[in-house]
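chain below, 127 aa
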Amino acid sequence: MRANRRSDTKPELALRRELHKQGYRYRKDYRIDLTGARVRPDIAFTARRVAVFVDGCFWHCCPEHGGQPASNTWYWEPKLARNVERDRAADAALAAAGWQVVRIWEHESLDAAVAAVVTALAGMTRA
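prediction:
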C-alpha cells in the first residue's frame, strides 16, 4: 500500500495544470486546522475558502466504479467505510468553518472538473 499516492495523483495533477494554465493560483495539499478536525484538501483556494478534493473511485467508494473487493472483505469493507465517513466529516467541518467543498471523482472529464472548480470560485466572494 506504500505505492498508493496520497497526493499528486494523475487526475489531480491534470486538474492543477489546467487551473494554473487558466491563471488560478492555489495551495496544494494545504493543511487546514479546524476545531475538532484537521483537513488536507488536494487543492485549496485560501482567500476564497474553496477546498477541492479529487477522490479515487476505489478508495472513496464511487457509486459508478467503486467495487467491493472479493477477497479479504473483513479488512477492506471497514477500511473503505472509514474513508467515506472521514470524507463526510471533513465536508461538514469545512462547511461549518465557512469553506465550500468541491469533490471530483477521478473518472470525471478534465473539462467537467475544471468547470466545477471555476463555478465554485465564481460563487465565492473574497473575504
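The longest strand covers residues 50-55. The beta strands are 27-28, 32-34, 37-39, 43-45, 50-55, 100-105.
thats it, cya
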